[in-house]
Amino acid sequence: MPNQTFAPHECLEVHELVGFKAVCVEKAQTYLQQVTNTQLKTLIQQDIRTAQQHIQQLQQVFS
Question: Are residues 11 and 62 in contact, defined by beta-carbon separation less than 8 angstroms?
Fold first, then answer.
């Protein structure tokens, strides 16, 4: 998004969203170590990957 400026509240909201998603990833990674069910483990791994992709996409908006 070339030459796009964001209002301060927009930057703050995205920053908070990235922080929230990062905490969710950390929690999911912790839970993943305790899970023994293979289907549940696969779902959690997919969720972690998706959340990490979302974090990267949000960070790219501001780079």
Answer: yes
Q: Residues 46, 29: contact at Cβ < 8 Å?
A: no
pTM of the predicted model as reported, rounded to 2 decimal places: 0.80
Q: Is 1 a member of any domain?
A: no
Q: Is residue 21 part of a domain?
A: no
Residue type, 46: Q
Q: Give the pLDDT confidence of 28-54 residue by residue, as tens digits.
A: 999 999 999 999 999 999 999 999 999
Q: 46: domain range?
A: 26-57
